[in-house]
Amino acid sequence: MIEKDGVPSLNQVKAEFPTLETLEKPKAIIECYKRIPCNPCETSCPFDAITVGEDINDRPRIDFDKCTGCGICVYNCPGLAITVSQIKGEEVHLKIPYEFTPLPEKGKRVNVMNRSGEVITQGTVTKVQAGKKQNKTALIHLSIPKEYVYEAITIEVSHGS
Amino acid sequence: MQNKEAIVIGGGPAGLTAAFELLQAGASVCLIDRNERLGGQLTKQTHMFFGSEKQYASHRGIDILEILTNALGKYGNKLEILTQTTVVGMYRDKVLACVKGDKFFKLKGEKIVFATGASEKALPFENNDLPGVYAAGAVQTLMNEYGIKPGEKVLMVGSGNIGLIVSYQLMQAGVEVVGLVEAADRIGGYLVHASKIKRLGVDILTKTSVKRAIGKESVEAAEIWDLDEQWQGIEGTERTLEVDTICVAVGLAPLTELLQQMGVKVQYVREFGGNVPVLDENYQTSVEGVYACGDLVNIEEASSAMVEGRIAGINAARSLGYDVENADFRIKALHHELKDLRGGPPGDKVRKGLKKLGVAT
Question: pTM higher than 0.90, yes or no?
């Protein structure tokens, strides 16, 4: 239970996803399960796809028709609670926020974790965005097997040797 | 003894915004901080802040510090900054006794804004005086300000935002967080922070506490146990975690001692972890010309502290006779910001505490 261990239920997770058909285009998945006073997702979105509204404690709502999956909200979210997901054939393309060094390199095989912190599969890093705009919250692009679409959330941290 | 127009005690988020508002209104400010540099807790907040754009949300605390200190920069000649200066005594006639290095001196302020913040609470358990038992803020200072790892394997105690954030920052520093225990039956801080460490493999154990630290010269292990409904440890549930560091993040207590020395009326508010000054709607204490803001008046996020500092600063400037542009409108807007920041479930405790103080929320 998320209030006790930090892990949202599968139903909670699925409720934040669009249909798998919609996911053929990249879409932001916002996992902000509790009301907190925060709205950078709304103000950072260049497409007005995310609404928190008048009361900044309200949970963000996303309009999947407007969301382009650009990933700007991913590195602007102070809670690192947003990812971008897209289904491409037999794979899921994920964009995740990452704040550890060294950054994984493009092409690297990495362990992919679920929301309980367990390694569930391996994925490939396809791109790393870590410029001035990302301001130390890198955007890591990953390619993983499609079956993990609702489970994959981050990658195992490697501090190098 | 030197006379000052306005003195701000404490250069954290609340003190910095209070000083800025006073300067912007035209007042001269003497800003006192006991640390080497200004910023208070901001100096070690490497994570992005919550809130809205008005409180610099999505900026990291350390970057907000730069924004706030840069804003003070243009008032150079009207601003006197005394760092590494500790106010050790307060007299009823607004005289401060200060110590800087081996020098002792007194200052008198026409108006004084207190922004002294809060100190971390300790937790009683066997061997809690062993080297390796730290307060979370100390760990953050070591890591984020001085680049020193406190240890290699850490048990975190407390799941408020500080415990959750420092756990994450320990991992960023390459330190293993073996687990996080929380005495309550649910996580205290923002769930996004909890999920962030859980998905990287840190187990969060609610209704669990630390029973004792084990070790000869320093911490070698921690014994934890389950708590019952009365928050008492349950015999037989003890287990040992191999750690070299126990990091305690069990709340903050406001630093009101100086205010009390000068006779300011305080009230004990459990929600704020101790005695807090009773304020009027202008953030003025029971002593005319003495204002207070930030964690000292209620334990909250830095976002709220910055807003409170502005309100106290504007009011102090007005009481000095300065004409603050759009003052009424701005104060109303700032109160509205506070209402927004406190409006959701994380603000429940703050609203409860403020109600005890008779403050409308």
Answer: yes
